[in-house]
Specification:
6 strands, 4 helices, alpha+beta, two-stranded antiparallel ribbon, single chain, two-stranded antiparallel sheet, 21% helix
Length: 127
Amino acid sequence: MKEVCDLDRKEINFAWCFDCVPEENSLLLGFGNIRFQLPSINLIFAYPRELLGKPVHARFGDEFPIRFDFLDTMDGGNLSLQVHPLTEYIQEKFGMHYTQEESYYMLDAREDVVVYLGLKMELIKMR
């Protein structure tokens, strides 16, 4: 990210997040010189099917479970361990209807980099 996005080379790591989860964001609206900030979740509650589409709304309800992260760990260490509960567990314990699933696309990596899959010592070598 430092090279591609021309960011400060003195910093260790960068992470940019494009987070569409409405309970974590707000909308800044402008009417002439007046500015008004509204929690994004209010817009989802008012127009869920129009914003999410019928299939997404049918599966996730009034939630918008999409998030994109652009992470840079080049020369900055490892990513944190990611552990997400099974759908049944998160619904029973936390009342959520889905768990967090992740996909990773490696855009660039050194030759010696490894990715650990699961909690066992099995390695997948990137080429």
